[in-house]
Amino acid sequence: MGRLQQTVFERNVPARSVVDHALARTRQAVFWQDDLGTPDRYPRLSASARADVVVVGGGCTGLWTALGIKQRDPGARVLLLEGRSVGWAASGRDTGLVTAPLGHENLAAMDVAVTGLGLDCGWERTGVVDLAVEPHQIDQLQDAAVAAAVAGVPHTYLDRAKVRAEIASPTYEAGLVRPGGGALVDPARLAAELARAASALGVEIFEETRAVRLAVPARGAVALRTTSPAGEASVRAERVVLGTGAFPPLLRRHRRQAAAVYEHAVATEPLDAGLLAALGWRGRQGLADAAHRYRLTDDDRIVFGGYAVRPAGGRMSRAHENQPETARRLAEHLLTTFPQLEGVRLTHRWAAATARGVRTGPDRLAQPGALGPGRDT
To answer: Which end of the chain is more exposed for a tag (fewer CB within 10 A), N or C?
Structure first.
């Protein structure tokens, strides 16, 4: 068999000294959490309870779900259980680039909700540019442009010269601008603000409360057992929504439908006006190629993410978050994308465990599980 073709990131690796300089003062820490301040804290569940709906997981899936249920049915008793603290896992650690793979209606609804609820989360509806960084990817972008035209989705296709005039990277071969297809957000602040809004509507949030067992009888309410530093408790509910992401699901049938992978990110120091001008990128759009997603922050840093790694044996561990060689690879890719950044320091490196669907039949796991009496085992 012939050798696999090298990518632009392997053909154009920056000098080792340049990468060493960029990483010299980097610390393992989530950039978004530095500016979070002291978020609201919620109690532990210390006594058994009964609810109409229990949501397991305090990330964005669980928070949006609990909020939506309470908005539709203000009289429902809704409990949200989080094993650590709201937004501490992947939902508070990603690159903060929101795109619309599930449809523009979904993104538009988020836009309306952020404004209507007054969520202070750095939301910017900047759009997104999908990028080809290899010649063979150009056809894919052209096909996407045709599909967007058929669907009536606003877009602009940029050839090699035009995309490099828009954003000055020597890696770009083509670009597809989707002005309504993306937004920027501070993910940690979004999670904290969603929790605040949900709590204000009456959702009862319990942190440091881990759901350890779920029983679904043929008749009667679904039963959950929990544990926390306050002790063990049980919760009975008509419906349970499981929004635990990459963490081991409570239902056996879900255990082979998703795998945990660790997605890594780095953040630069703030860029000065001269360097920003050298990059172009005046529209502040989110950028995405086949392997990376990146954006500018409020204080003009670049957050550059990608390089998903599945841990050996599929076991989750905090040790997988500290991967200096992966951070180095990301730094190399960033400096290949923007050689103008030579001399700029990286300040943060971090990782988040996320769930990736694995094929077990005709479908992939693409939504949280919801169940009621007699519907699952």
So the answer is: N
Q: How far is CA 169 from the centre of its chain?
A: 25
Q: What is the mean pLDDT of residues 193-200?
A: 97
49-121+186-247+364-371 fold:
FAD/NAD(P)-binding domain (3.50.50)
Mention every residue, 6+ apart, whose C-beta is less than 8 A from residue 214: 222, 223, 224, 225, 240, 250, 251
- Residues facing residue 98 across a β-bridge: 183
Q: Say which residues have a Cβ less than 8 Å from residue 66's Cβ, sequence separation at least 6.
A: 53, 55, 78, 80, 198, 203, 205, 241
Overall pTM surpassing 0.85 (yes/no): yes
Q: CB under 8 Å to 368, separation ≥6 — which residues?
A: 57, 61, 62, 65, 241, 242, 243
Backbone angles phi, psi at 358, to 5 degrees: -120, 145
Q: Are 233 and 226 within 8 A, CB to CB?
A: yes
pLDDT tops 90 at residue 360: no
pLDDT at 252 over 80: no
Q: Whole-angstrom Cα distance, residue 363 to residue 360? A: 7
Tell me what pLDDT residue 72 has.
96
Q: What is the token pair recorded at 42? A: 């919620």
Q: What is the pLDDT of residue 369?
A: 36
b (16+ CB within 10 A) / e for 249-273: bbeeebeebbebbbbbbbbbbebee
> Looking at residues 61-67, what average pLDDT do you find?
95
CA distances from 149 to 152, 156, 176 (A): 5, 10, 12
> What are the residue boundaries of the structural domains of the chain, listed by start?
8-31+124-183+257-357, 49-121+186-247+364-371
Convert 90-149 into a string of H (helix), E (strand) and C (coil): HHHCCCCEEECCCCHHHHHHHHHHHHHCCCCCCCECCCEEEEECCHHHHHHHHHHHHHHH
